[in-house]
UniProtKB/TrEMBL annotation:
Keyword terms of this UniProt record: Cytoplasm, GTP-binding, Magnesium, Metal-binding, Molybdenum cofactor biosynthesis, Nucleotide-binding, Nucleotidyltransferase, Transferase
Cellular component annotations (GO), alphabetically ordered: cytoplasm
Entry note about domains: The N-terminal domain determines nucleotide recognition and specific binding, while the C-terminal domain determines the specific binding to the target protein.
UniProt-recorded name of the protein: Molybdenum cofactor guanylyltransferase
UniProt: Mg(2+) binding residues: D106
HAMAP family from the UniProt entry: MobA
Single biological process term from Gene Ontology: bis(molybdopterin guanine dinucleotide)molybdenum biosynthetic process
Lineage, opening ranks: Bacteria, Pseudomonadati, Pseudomonadota, Gammaproteobacteria, Cellvibrionales
Taxonomic superkingdom: Bacteria
A GO molecular-function descriptor: metal ion binding
EC category: transferase
Protein's organism: Parahalioglobus pacificus
Biological role: Transfers a GMP moiety from GTP to Mo-molybdopterin (Mo-MPT) cofactor (Moco or molybdenum cofactor) to form Mo-molybdopterin guanine dinucleotide (Mo-MGD) cofactor.
Reactions this protein catalyses: Mo-molybdopterin + GTP + H(+) = Mo-molybdopterin guanine dinucleotide + diphosphate
Sequence ranges assigned to domain MobA-like NTP transferase in this UniProt record: 15-169
Length: 190
């Protein structure tokens, strides 16, 4: 991945932050807008993702006016009733880059080289690469090829919602971020 300095970003990667969840583990609170150290959680996630992508899209199903300043584009689920993170990816539609870097909004410490490390593990045959650390799979810290996106709607139409199972339908690899579990800690508290 190119080094990014002075606002120059990757031109081949779209960044997608998933912030469209119900927030049920937090009593219905919109996690991306939770105040952490004096600023919304989404701000920390954006800070880490912005240098790794040419365009930042936030998938949000409420509070769009609060998310708008942080993204180049906002999308909302095409499906009703908060159907999970895959619905947030599906909402993106077509992208004009060959790669999509996905992160959840509640993981503000993603590595600043997440995209580079995932990209380094991609071969021409690989459709998707996700992070793993200390025995845990982080399926939503994910780099996808554009060609994998059309498989998502039929998968969701079949009633499936599991990110792990969808990734198993693709040519997928995991990348170890050994001893970096803190980078993938989810903020699920109020």
């Amino acid at each position: 991945m190119e080094r990014t300095e002075f606002g120059q970003h990757r031109t081949d990667i779209t960044g997608l932050i998933l912030a469209g969840g119900r927030g049920s583990r937090m009593g219905g609170v919109d996690k991306g807008l939770v105040d952490i150290d004096g600023r919304p959680l989404i701000a920390a996630t954006i800070e880490r993702l912005r240098p790794q992508a040419s365009t930042i899209v936030i998938s949000c199903n409420r509070n769009a006016e609060h998310y708008r300043p942080y993204a180049d584009r906002l999308v909302t689920d095409l499906r009703a009733d908060f159907q999970g993170p895959l619905a947030g990816i599906e909402a993106l539609g077509e992208i004009n880059t060959p790669l999509l870097l996905v992160t959840p909004c509640d993981t503000p410490n993603i590595p600043s080289n997440l995209g580079a490390r995932l990209l380094a593990a991609m071969t021409p045959a690989t459709d998707a690469v996700y992070a793993q650390s200390d025995g845990r799979q982080h399926y939503l810290c994910l780099l996808l090829r554009q060609r994998a996106l059309p498989t998502l709607s039929p998968y969701l139409d079949s009633g499936q919602r599991s990110v792990r199972h969808w990734l198993q339908t693709l040519n997928t690899e995991a990348v170890s971020f050994a001893n970096e579990a803190h980078a993938f800690t989810n903020v699920n508290y109020r």
